[in-house]
Amino acid sequence: MIEHKINPKAIAAMTAFLEALGVDLKKLGMEKTPYRVAEAYTAFFSGLQESPDTQWGELIKTSSNGLVAVRNLRFYSICEHHLLPFFGTVQIAYYPHNGQIAGFGHFADVVSVLTRRPQLQERLTSQICDSINAGVHAEGVLVIVQATHLCLTMRNSTALDSDIITAVSSGRLKEGTEQYMEAWKLLTRKDSDE
Predict the structure, then answer these.
(1) pLDDT score of 67 more than 80
(2) Where, in this chain's numbering, is Zn(2+) bound (predicted)?
């Protein structure tokens, strides 16, 4: 696990926040909670110090120009509106340019960097697509993100089983094309459908 330096201002701010809400830290035995929260959020937001575009490494030359899919990349992030978690999966399909592909782990690294910062699911989906375009020079990209948002489910009893789906595409996989539909089916099919 990566060690992150905890800013004393974050600890003081969390102490002030909890006390402003009427939490008696000493009485409840929560004196260390501000430190723990500051430590956790320092890790949760560590992606702010990294660029997803530096995660790609050297591309691999192949003879394949067919559709490549990376499915079910699991993630956790923090919604910037309420600072509560949202979590789910990322599905990615792309057409390589001139047979140039990236190692599969690089896709997970990009998702990791982008989810370790305050996020909106819609922005996350676009940022993943943009990074793939920049890093792999893909001829077409489709990114689908499906997530559960605790800011919705914890605050609304009718939304307990809800999930949010966002999609962004580019190039040969632009929405409305036959290739888009092929990639969408590939990325959204359940294993039991195979």
Answers:
(1) yes
(2) 79, 82, 151
Strand order through the sheet with 140-149? 118-119, 68-79, 85-95, 140-149, 164-171
> H or E stretch including 115?
helix 104-115
Residue 150, domain extent = 54-193
Query: Is there a domain that residue 2 lies in?
Result: no
> What total number of domains does the chain contain?
2
pTM beyond 0.85: the answer is: yes
> Do the Cβ atoms of 69 and 186 come closer than 8 Å?
yes
Per residue in 122-150, pLDDT tens? Answer: 999 999 999 999 999 999 999 999 999 99
Which residues, in sequence order, are CB contacts of 189 under 8 Å at separation 6+? none
- Residue 149 assigned to a binding site: no
CB 39 within 8 A of CB 3: no
**131 shares its domain with 104:** yes
Which has the closest alpha carbon to 145: 88, 100, 78? Answer: 88
- Is residue 158 in some structural domain? yes
| pLDDT tens-digit series, residues 12-61 | 999 999 999 999 999 999 999 999 999 999 999 999 999 999 999 999 99
Q: Is 137 annotated as a binding residue?
A: no
Using CA atoms, how far apart are residues 169 and 92, in angstroms rounded to an integer? Answer: 10
Q: How many Å apart are CA 58 and CA 102, to the nearest integer?
A: 7
